[in-house]
Amino acid sequence: MFFLAPGRRPFLSTLVVACLVSHAASQEPTSFPSQNSVTDYAPSTNVECPDFSIQSQSLIRVFTPENQTLHPDEVSYVSQRASLVLQDAWQSWLGTNESKHGYNLPAFQGNYPKVGMAIPGGGLRAALYGAGCLSGLDARNDSAKAAGTGGLLQVTSYLSGLSGGSWITGSMYFNNWPTMDDMVLGNGGDMEGWLLDINLVSPDGVDLISDNNQAFFGSILWSIMAKAAQGIDTSLTDPWARMISYHFLNQTNRANFFTNDTAHGAGQLWSNIPLIPAYQQFQTPFPIIVADSRPVGSNLTTVLSPDSTVFEITPLELASYDPNLSAGMNLSRAGTHLSNGKAVNGSACVTGFDQAGFIMGSSASLFNQILDFARNTISEFSQSDGAAILYVLSRQLKEVRTRADDVANWPNPFNGIKNTTFQDSDEEWLELIDGASNQENIPYGPLFVRERGLDVIVTIEGSSDDPINNWPNGTGPLFSAKRQSTILRSSHQQFPPIPQDAQSFVDTGVNARATFFGCDPTQSPPEYPLVIYLPNAPPINGDDPVTNTATFTLSYTRKHQEIFLSQVHTNTISGFTPNANIPDPNFGTCLQCAAIDRGRFKVTPNIARSAICKQCFQQYCFDPENPPSRSELPGRKQVFVDPDPQGLGKVDNFFTKNMSALIGGLVGLVVFLGFLIGGLFWWRKRKSARQQAYKRVNDFHEDDAPWQRYSDHPHEETYEMPTHRSSLS
Fold it and tell me: What single string gives the DSSP state of each residue in 139-172?
């Protein structure tokens, strides 16, 4: 059941009614875990399974790449949202003014494109970038609506997230689809926001044994122990999942952060998203989270090969549309050991395994590549953050049984399924890890599944590919395009033409400004979707960038968050003007042109592209035969500047901002010292000459020098201590 934290009661009555209606309509009774204690993280075991002899109650759904099927409830939701909400949303966004984009909307006959959005990984940076970008595409945001970009979010049918992108995805749903600013920064009332100024892993600072940190770690471990007590093996992903929940779910505020007054998200299930009011009203896209699978027993600590299975997690099922598996499992029974689709333990199933925090943690479980068990070290994180994670793991290992510590351990529901092609068909467990472990940092896979038939895919690109300045360089799209053209050719749509390598992404400038890929298909219907690419990029006006932070940055000050969101939002609604540092006043129209373009092919005869949209496409479309140039983007600063330095960072920031003045002062000081030293040499030389002249005279009178008379009777120096210092006591 969806939990409302204290004060979050506006839609409580709606939720209660929704739950009652849902339960009454269900063919089987469903029990929901409590959400009052951190121990509600524990799944329920020995729950009666459905009757496996009845096909409609089967927990496993199997298909083929050539004959794909979607979960029937997914098909129903997307279809109803299209008919009940999207028709009005498209008309509201595009308006009735034909002169704006050059199209007569009734000519489309209601055949609007199916749109998906992808939010990639990158920790808190990716989550913040996703929030800033989505605010620029949200019709509820006044400046976005005025720019013409606000509305694209409202016409979206699918939303996929990966790693840090899964955190914002989960947060939007479990906070009932709020505006981005309210979700991140709070609304001054019933929402306090993500609280990102509180460190994700050591919320009370570097002193791990402080009372508050110990209370926090104790609560985390209490949750894990409760799960382990149910006979479910745990790993480092579990405390990581609980830490994520404190910030991105809906039960934590500053007053209760170090208490157990709430469950801090424990007991909130991914399979209960359909009970959230905004979802029930079809106001949200259909959510999908991506995680990769490390072959069991491989113990790989490197990136995965492209043929490793990729899983998607929806409110309905854990599934893979990779040709080697092509199967799905009822998510509400995840955690149940199955063999050939039936419970290994007779009629006993597991429920409550699909904790929302654990889903987000599984998608962001990157420890296999950074945790060194032999040396008891963890790389990438700061020293203090790494120490906190290792501390929690050490206490976890003392208290509970674990399995593979560096992955998310999922009982394998596909045991015995597709045993000639599926890598883990013979295994009892799945080892899920970060969804970017195969270098596909953007969760494109679910959106390119053929049966979903998406026409437009929006990329909220907050990746950090450049190792120096943390900007994207196209690595994610390149790996996805390669995987789809080889391993996924039979199951997924193909990728549209893009630059051939990462350096070309940079040289053409498409990694630093809004770009449309696949504008000119050669077939009807088109052979690939149109991809709208919105990358994290320096401010177009030449301001210092604050959004290209490191992936493992685990806290942001309030000021930094505000400026971060503002820069991303401004870039999103501005587009770019070639060879200038000013926004494109027509970008909103151009974005609408890209979003509606595939709709032209859904009508017979096809609708001709409007003159206004042709002009837009000349500026924003990537043409591999006539690629753009980065030189069209002058004056963009690349190096991150901390907008709110703390501690030693203030000193670093001072030197960075005043480097020219300091260098000038240093040069002046060197010149001054040069003159001073030169003067001293001249003075000493002159004095030496004078002393030589006097020495000849003194040699004759040395014995008669007056100071020699007293040299044999020296007097001891005495000092009188001032009265106020006469005592040291």
Answer: TTSHHHHHHT-TTTGGGEEEEEEETHHHHHHHHH
Q: What is the phi-psi region of residue 246: left when phi exceeds 0, alpha when psi lies from -120 to 50, beta otherwise?
A: alpha
Express each pLDDT in 372-406 by its tens digit.
Answer: 766 777 888 999 999 999 999 999 988 887 889 99
Residue 105 CA to residue 188 CA, distance in Å, equals 40
With 60 as the cut, is the pLDDT of residue 501 above it?
Answer: yes
Q: In angstroms, rounded to a whole number, what is the distance separating the alpha carbons of residues 322 and 290?
A: 12
pTM of the full predicted structure?
Answer: 0.86
Q: What is the pLDDT of residues 57-69, one digit of tens each?
A: 789 999 999 999 9
Q: By three-state DSSP, how is residue 350 classified?
A: strand
C-beta separation of 291 from 311 below 8 A: yes
How far is it, in rounded angstroms, from Cα 90 to Cα 111?
10
Bridge partners of 433, per DSSP, are: 292
**CB distance 493 to 484 below 8 Å:** yes
Quote the mean pLDDT of the chain: 87
DSSP labels, 454-490: -SEEEEEE-----TTT----SHHHHHHHHHHHTTTTT
C-beta of residue 268 within 8 angstroms of C-beta of residue 444 = no
Q: 3-state secondary structure string, 550-578?
A: CCCCCCCCHHHHHHHHHHHHHHHHHCCCC
Lowest mean per-residue pLDDT among 21-35, 397-411, 628-642: 21-35
Q: Is there a contact between 142 and 195 (Cβ–Cβ < 8 Å)? A: no
**Closest among 507, 538, 500, 534 to 631, alpha carbons compared:** 507
Residue bearing tokens 């109650």: 57
253 contacts: CB under 8 Å, gap ≥ 6: 5, 6, 192, 195
pLDDT of res. 13 = 37
